Amino acid sequence: MQTRAPHVVGRDREVAAITGALERTRECRGGAVFLTGEAGIGKSRLARYAAGRAYDEGMRVLKGRGTTIGPMVPFRPLAEALLGLFRGDPPDDSALGPYKPVLGTLIPDWHDHRSTTESVVVLAEAVLRLLASVARKTPVLLVLEDLHDADAETLAVIEYLADNLEDQPVLLLATIRTEPGHALELVHRMVQRGSGGLLELHRLSRDEVVRMTAACLESDEVPAELSDRLWTDSAGNPFVVEELLHGMVSGGLLVSGTHGWQVLGELKLPVPAAFVRSVAHRTDRLGPQGREVLSIAAVLGHRFPLSVVQRVTGTDDRGLLSHLHAGVAAQLVTPDEPAPDWYAFRHPLTADALLAQLTPAERADLSSRTADAIEDLHPGLPGDWCPLVAKLRFDGGAPALAGRLFAEAGRRALASGAAGSAVTLLDRAQGLLADEVVERADVLDTLLPALAETGDFERAFTFDLTELHGLDNSRRARLHTRLSRVAHIAGRFTEGVEQVRLARSLLGADAPDELAAQLDVNSAYLALNIPSANRIDSAAGLARQAALAADRAGLPAVACEAWQLLGIIARERDLDEASSCFGKALALADTHHMPIQHVYALVRLAGNVWLADGTTAALDRSHAEACRAGAITVAYNVDAILSLQSVLTGRYTQAAEQVERCLEATGRLRFHALTRYLLMVRATLAAHRGDRAGTEDAVARFEAVAKSGAQEHPLCFGLALAFCALLEENHDQAVREIDHALALESQNPTTFHLSGTHGTRLLLGVLDGRFGWADHRALIATSPARMRWNRQFIELAHAVLLGRDGRCAEAAEAFRRAQEAAEPYPMARHLGLRLVAPEAAGWGDQVGWLRTAEEYFHQAGVPAVASACRGLLRQAGVPVQQRRTGTDQVPRQLRGHGVTVREFEVFVLLADRMGNKAIGTRLHISPRTVEKHVASLIAKTGQPDRESLSAYAAALSR
Fold it and tell me: What distance in Å separates the CA atoms of residue 885 and residue 861, rounded to the nearest whole number?
């Protein structure tokens, strides 16, 4: 008979909490609930209850387990759960976009060899989006059991889900043992910050044990002797209660008669020996072959495949199934529902009890035989089989062989993006190969980049390579090369240079190309990131050496990386040369099937087209390709560029939406470099709208997160703050901002070219007389001068210089070219009209340009430029339309005093203690008119004198 409780006993509080969580989930208020407790305390029983309740209420239930065969395998519980979506109609993937190929790591049907490997955070976002997509039709319960056995990557995804399920109709229910470890620590951190609820299961009370026993025996009466013994021996652990009860019934100590259940004989057994003896008694009744079947299964782990057990035992199909059915009847094993031809022990403690009956020699023999069988059945040990056989070889007494297999499993884990699991497996390999210096070095060669991926940089630099006695110079240099790349990723550029120096000293002058190529690429990236006046030239030289050496050595990945860097650097000299470099990288990527390099080359080629022509069709195509390949990082790179394009082309509302959407995603996904770029775009957006406070706030936020020497920093001054000043008609301030951008670029040359130093600076310098033909000739010889955004300002400066020389027809033609270049950029185009109109006598339509610019800036709500245009028109003796709008810009307290828009413009400038002449120059009115406005302001605001009025203006502007 079955001696298991038919319903949950003693868990009323937990049942109520789970029921409430399910109700909230159906109302789109999901979240996470964590069930914790010792082994056998009833976590799985409650999880089954929750799954049944959810199913009855029409929810979609997905289940996965952390416990697996052998060592932990990356993402196993998540993959098992998500594969449940494909038993029947597959989920709608239309809303996943670029995240679908990312999920190929977990869902074989969606795997694409052309897709890229993204970070665990990106994979977590993909899982979240898939669950949300499924839950839009039917709320989802995701049950993940035994997470104390889960890998680091699975735990990272679970943390991400728990942090982001609040507004989704998805409930995560996870079970974890209360054993010290990363999983339990993570649960406590999540609960502490409010990302989940904790239900810690305690042992049953004496009364609850009695109630559970009665439920198991389907009887209202429980012999007092039985309840006393079960309470004493189980200590309130429900699983032990059931196991002891089953042992008593099957052993004839507890029998059912006409007067109910009766105890026959002595019930006293020690625990846990009682449980072990109960399992032993049941396996003995299965016979020698049945016991061997279950012992081999226990060697494999909590779950086991029938094919392996059959190969080890040599049992035919009928005999194997007969033993398994007997094991099911004895409540030792159960079919593993999600996976056909797999079985699982009813509880992990059952497998432990079976192993406890084996002598060390018996366990080693079974482990070796099982490893041999798996290698026969699965040549090459694909997937989970490699770490399992590594464990079996270790248990079988072959540590060196186990170490090599753990090393191979670690390499595969790293290649699949599971860096945390790779570190665990490679650490195991390091320990087992302690006496094998060369093999340890090979393991370290993979472990160092794995540590970099997990962010454990400090540990990477704790390895003392001098301890690897007997290692040849080339292998030692390879490890220093690895450390130099780790240093670059960590931002420890000086330390990276030292690792390069050590590697070069070991290799000498005649370093083989296969080592020199990677070393030179690393050196190039380090040089590009260390502030210096010649960092661009130094990086270019190193990258070119690397490309040539990689080509000779047949290292396409290194060559591709070098050509990509050369293309970025070449933009400073020649866009065509840059495109040629990217083209070479693209050809290498396509020939050697390198999807991530293919996508990066496409995006950079498209970026060149954007810089040269100001068009985004190629960027749109590369974005679609990045999405198809699941290259989320690259896709967001393109999104960031497109958001800047929206700013430059005057689509400010769209730009604001793009920037905020991307910032939310890049912040969540921890794309720090992209976050910096987007903060720069946000500053540029505010500046091009004439929003001084918004601009300064965005620049401050950028500087708070950016490191010294960040390549976007000059853009904050030349593309953002300078234009903000121009829209305030503060040309002197605009010049200072662009000069500061130039100083930053001189200290730390950048690969960005829209900071104003290659266009706007020349125009402003020509207008104020600082620059002439020599400056113009020097600038147009550079590659950035041919970029469309810069070209509009250079052509305007050219027109002014030609006009001053009396070459009116040529000036008009240069202006036409400027307008053609400026066509996509409405704000810059109209600003150009306002700036050059005073210089256009004899060759341009000054009045028409100023009227056009005035209308644009008036409609755009930029009063300073609109006012300047009206002032210039008045000076030209042209009737000017009176603008009565704009009073909303005057603060309420000043409007209450009757202050006009023009008086407010004067009031704002008084805050800087400017004199009448300076104010008049700024606003294009006479000093006498300024004096009249000041007198009116003093009277209206009740201030005693001009000094008090200026102080009032300064206080109000803060």
Answer: 9
Single out the residue of 305, 307, 308, 311 nearest to residue 342, CA to CA.
Answer: 305
pLDDT value of residue 271: 45
How far apart, in Å, are the Cα atoms of 123 and each of 186, 546, 674, 911? 19, 33, 18, 53
Cα–Cα distance for residue pair 560/543, rounded to 1 Å: 10
Q: Say if CB 184 and CB 18 are below 8 A apart.
A: no
Please say if the pLDDT value at position 308 is more than 60: yes
- Per-residue burial over 402-412, b if 16 or more Cβ lie within 10 Å, else e, is bbbbbbbbbbb
Whose tokens are 């009855």? That residue is: 56
Alpha-carbon distance values, 331 to 2, 46, 245, 291, 345 (Å): 8, 19, 12, 14, 9
- Each as own residue / partner, the long-range contacts of residues 652-658 (CB below 8 Å, 24 or more positions apart, any chain) are 652/685, 652/688, 652/689, 655/681, 655/685, 656/685
> Is a pLDDT exceeding 90 seen at residue 331?
no
Which residue pairs from 485-488 have beta carbons closer than 8 angstroms and sit at least 24 positions apart in sequence?
485/449, 485/452, 485/522, 486/448, 486/449, 486/451, 486/452, 486/457, 486/460, 486/461, 487/461, 487/526, 488/522, 488/525, 488/526, 488/529
**pTM score of the predicted model:** 0.69
Which 8-state DSSP code applies to residue 3? -
Min mean pLDDT across 59-68, 166-175, 273-282, 693-702 is at 273-282
User: Can you say whether the dihedral through the CA atoms of 478, 479, 480, 482 is positive or negative?
Assistant: positive
Q: List pLDDT tens digits, range 418-443.
A: 788 888 899 999 999 988 889 999 99
Contact predicate 785/794, CB 8 Å: yes
Q: Which residues contact 949 (CB under 8 A, 6 or more apart)?
A: 907, 910, 934, 937, 938, 941, 943
Q: Please report which helix (H) or strand (E) contains residue 179, including its range.
A: none
Q: CA nearest 861: which of 887, 879, 836?
A: 887
- The whole-angstrom separation of Cα 311 and Cα 460 is 42
Examine the pLDDT at 878 and tell me if it is beyond 60: yes
Task: Please name every residue paired with 31 in a beta bridge, in sequence order, or none if there are none.
Answer: 171
Phi, psi of 261 (to 5 degrees): -80, 135
Distance CA 110, CA 94 (A): 13
Written as one string, the DSSP assignment of 424-461 is: HHHHHHHHHTTT-HHHHHHHHHHHHHHHHHHT-HHHHT
Contact between residue 92 and residue 101 where contact means Cβ atoms under 8 Å apart: no
What contacts 809, CB < 8 A, 6 or more positions away? 843
Q: State both tokens at 368.
A: 């070796």
Q: Which token pair is 397?
A: 């007494």
d(CA 840, CA 812): 9
**3-state class (DSSP) for residue 198:** strand
> Rounded CA gap, 742 and 739, in Å?
5
Instruction: Give the Å distances, CA to CA, from 402 to 352, 371, 390, 866.
Output: 22, 11, 4, 77
Phi-psi region of 89 (alpha: psi -120 to 50; beta: other; left: phi over 0): beta
**What is the rounded distance in angstroms from the CA atom of residue 899 to the CA atom of residue 820?**
42
Q: Are 715 and 742 in contact (CB under 8 A)?
A: no
Task: Decide if pLDDT at 5 tops 80.
Answer: no
Report phi then psi at 754, rounded to 5.
-115, 30
d(CA 39, CA 238): 10
Instruction: Using the predicted structure, report yes or no on whether residue 660 has a pLDDT greater than 70.
Output: yes
> What whole-number distance in Å separates Cα of residue 449 and Cα of residue 713?
30
Residue 830: what pLDDT? 97
Instruction: Strand 333-335: give its sheet, edge to edge.
Output: 303-305, 342-345, 333-335
With the C-alpha atoms ordered 710, 711, 717, 719, is the resulting torsion angle positive or negative? negative
Q: How far is CA 324 from CA 289, 303, 327, 334, 439, in A?
A: 11, 13, 5, 9, 42
Q: How far is CA 139 from CA 31, 88, 169, 188, 878, in A?
A: 12, 17, 5, 26, 69
Mean pLDDT of 824-836: 97
